[in-house]
Specification:
Layout (H helix, E strand, L loop, with lengths): L1 H15 L2 H13 L1 H27 L9 H29 L7 H6 L4 H10 L3 H13 L4 H28 L4 H14 L1 H24 L1
């Protein structure tokens, strides 16, 4: 159970430590506080649906005896680790070749969104592969229903922490939060490529090393 919780927590980090998602929730929340709540609702809905979806597939197909749950999780995490390393390198390259003075169109569009678009933006930004991998690991594990609910809850909470914080701060500290979030937004936007590179590289290398040890 402890290993499973660690696995889903790592997948949660993979899904949640996304500068683009953080920037998006900051920008839409700055328009109206309810936009941040709509973004969060879309984010949570997709994470829950994708995490639970593997249950229907796995329960309708027999398990292969020669592949253990531990090996399956290791292979999934290894693949995601390699993908993350590739994305980190791509982000590094993009950061060195983009025009720092040019504002991306997606960023400008986020500054003019409403409630519905905020919801849809939150729905498309979670890491779909990470959510499916977490659900697969949970429903292949030989644990009780309560343990599965706990593991899925850990995944959703870890994944969502970065997008819960800005809307929550706007409601808890409406007078000071806008200034604080604007300052954070400016810095994250300016350094988004470097942040993405270091976050994805660290998680990717950790996943590859950990999975490689398990598969040996």
């Amino acid at each position: 159970m402890g290993t499973l919780l660690l696995d889903v927590a790592i997948l949660g980090l993979l899904s949640g430590l996304d500068p683009l998602a953080f920037l998006a929730v900051l920008v839409v929340s700055a328009q109206q506080r309810r936009n941040g709540i709509a973004f969060l609702c879309g984010w949570l809905l997709v994470l829950v649906v994708l995490s639970v979806a593997p249950a229907t597939v796995l329960h309708s197909r027999p398990e292969h005896e020669h592949v253990t749950h531990r090996q399956l999780r290791a292979v999934l995490l290894l693949v995601f680790g390699l993908v993350l390393i590739g994305l980190a390198v791509r982000s590094r390259y993009a950061g060195r070749h983009h025009d720092a003075e040019k504002i991306p169109r997606w960023y400008l569009r986020l500054q003019r969104v409403g409630l519905k678009t905020s919801f849809l933006t939150g729905a498309v930004l979670p890491s779909f592969p990470a959510a499916i991998a977490a659900g697969t690991a949970v429903f292949r594990a030989d644990i009780m229903v309560g343990g599965r609910i706990l593991a899925l809850t850990v995944f959703v909470l870890v994944s969502s922490a970065i997008v819960i914080a800005p809307p929550a701060l706007l409601y808890l500290a409406p007078e000071t939060a806008p200034v604080t979030l604007a300052r954070i937004n400016a810095r994250v936007y300016r350094e988004r490529h470097d942040i993405t590179f270091w976050v994805l590289s660290a998680i990717g290398l950790f996943l590859v090393a950990r999975s490689g040890v398990r598969l040996l």
